[in-house]
Specification:
four-stranded antiparallel β-sheet; mainly beta; globular; Neuraminidase
Length: 369
C-alpha cells in the first residue's frame, strides 16, 4: 500500500523546532539526510520544501532527532527538484563545519511553477552549520539557464564551492563572484566529495560515454597530469576507480583516506565495493537492497546518496534508496550495511512516511568549530 498519511514525527518536529528555533543544532557523529517534502506539497509539482534531518546511525526505523528547515520564502529561500532523479546530493565541507547542497533560489517556493531547471531563476549553494544556521549563495549561470540542473556541491569551508550537474553545471564558484566558471573537461557530473582535501567526482555511463571513457570516480588534474587537490576550471579529469559496466548508473560514492577501498551507489543495483590491489581497482561485491515496494510499482531498487564510516574494523555504509511510486523516488529509506563480507545484512535506519517525501543526499553531521 502506498504511504500517504502526514507523519506524526513531522508534526512533532515542526512544533519542537518552532519553539526552539534558536537552539536547533546537530550532534557530532550522526547522520545528516537531505529530505525533500513535508507530506503536504505534492512532489509532482517539482518544487518542495527542503529539510535536513539528523538520524542516529545505530537506530532502526527511527524518527529524526532534529530537523533544520530550509526557508521557502525570503532572501534565503532555496529548494531543488526532488522529482528529478539526479538532484539533491549532500556533502560536508572539507573542514567539517558545513553541510552543502545545490539548487535554486532567489524566489519563493512555487512562485514560478514548473521544473526549476527550465526556469530563468538563479542557481546556487545552500550551507547549514552545526547550529542550524542557513546561508544561501546565488548566482546566474555563465550560459543560458535553460535545462541547467545543479545536482550537488562541495566547499572547502572558506567560501569556495564546486558544483556538479549536467552540461554547464560542473562549476567552480567563489562567494565573492557573481558568475561561476564551468569545467570544460567535465560536461556532466553526478556527485562530488572532498576527501583528504582532494576533490573527486562521479560520472555515470552516459556521462563517461561523452568523454569516450568509463563510468566511475574521477580526480581532477592539472595540465601536466598532476593531481589538483581543489582545482580551478582549467583542470582535466582522470579516472581513479572504474565502475563495472553492469553498475554504471552511479551517483553517490565514498573512499577511504588511503585510497584502497571505495563504494559506489548504483540507482538500480545497490551499493558496490571496490578494492585496490597494487595499482588496480577491482569490484569486490555488490550489496543488493531488499525492497518494500512491489516490483511492478517500484521506481528503482538501488541507492543514490552514500556515506561511509571507515573508522572501525569494518566500514559502515549508509545510503538513501531509490525506491518509490509513480516513477520517481519517494517513500524510500536510509539504510545501513556493516561491511563484514558480501552477505552483510542491510538494515533500515529511517523510512520515509509518504509518497510526497524523499530522502536524497546523506553525509555526516557538521562539527562545531
Amino acid at each position: 500500500m502506498k504511504l500517504s498519511l502526514f507523519p506524526l514525527w513531522l508534526a512533532t518536529l515542526a512544533a519542537t523546532n518552532l519553539a526552539s528555533a534558536q537552539v536547533v543544532h546537530f550532534l557530532p557523529d550522526k547522520l545528516a539526510v537531505l529530505r525533500a517534502g513535508d507530506g503536504q506539497v505534492k512532489q509532482k509539482l517539482k518544487q518542495a520544501p527542503v529539510f535536513i534531518d539528523q538520524f542516529d546511525p545505530a537506530a532502526f526505523n527511527a524518527a529524526p532527532a532534529c530537523t533544520v528547515a530550509i526557508p521557502t520564502n525570503g532572501a534565503s529561500a532555496f529548494f531543488f527538484n526532488s522529482h528529478a532523479a539526479t538532484e539533491g546530493v549532500l556533502s560536508r565541507s572539507a573542514d567539517g563545519r558545513l553541510l552543502v547542497f545545490a539548487g535554486y533560489g532567489g524566489l519563493g517556493l512555487l512562485e514560478k511553477p514548473g521544473a526549476p531547471s527550465l526556469l530563468d531563476i538563479p542557481r546556487g549553494f545552500c550551507t547549514v552549520n552545526a547550529t542550524g544556521a542557513v546561508q544561501t549563495l546565488l548566482y546566474q549561470p555563465a550560459v543560458s539557464t535553460d535545462k541547467i540542473n545543479p545536482r550537488g556541491g562541495v566547499s572547502d569551508g572558506e567560501n569556495h564551492f564546486w558544483g556538479c550537474g549536467n552540461a554547464g553545471a560542473t562549476i567552480y564558484f567563489s562567494a565573492g563572484d557573481k558568475v561561476p566558471v564551468a569545467f570544460d573537461a567535465a560536461p556532466n557530473t553526478r556527485a562530488m566529495k572532498i576527501i583528504n582535501h582532494v576533490l573527486y567526482a562521479t560520472l555515470n555511463g552516459p556521462d563517461a560515454m561523452i568523454m569516450d571513457n568509463s563510468a566511475g570516480i574521477y580526480q581532477f588534474v592539472d595540465g601536466a597530469g598532476q593531481p589538483a587537490s581543489l582545482p580551478q576550471p582549467a583542470a582535466k579529469l582522470r579516472l581513479v576507480v572504474p565502475a563495472e559496466k553492469a553498475f554504471a548508473k552511479i551517483s553517490g560514492f565514498d573512499m577511504n583516506p588511503d585510497q584502497t577501498v571505495a563504494y559506489l551507489a548504483d540507482a538500480s543495483a545497490g551499493v558496490q565495493k571496490y578494492v585496490k590491489t597494487g595499482d588496480t581497482w577491482k569490484l569486490a561485491y555488490n550489496f543488493t537492497i531488499p525492497q518494500n515496494i512491489p516490483p511492478k510499482e517500484n521506481h528503482a531498487a538501488g541507492c543514490f546518496g552514500l556515506a561511509v564510516d571507515f573508522r572501525g574494523p569494518a566500514p559502515i555504509v549508509y545510503a538513501t534508496t531509490t525506491e518509490g511510486y509513480g516513477n520517481t523516488v519517494n517513500s524510500n529509506r536510509v539504510v545501513r550495511i556493516v561491511d563484514t563480507n558480501a552477505t552483510a545484512v542491510v538494515s533500515t535506519v529511517a523510512q520515509s512516511p509518504s509518497a510526497d517525501i524523499a530522502f536524497r543526499g546523506i553525509t555526516f553531521t557538521p562539527e562545531a568549530k
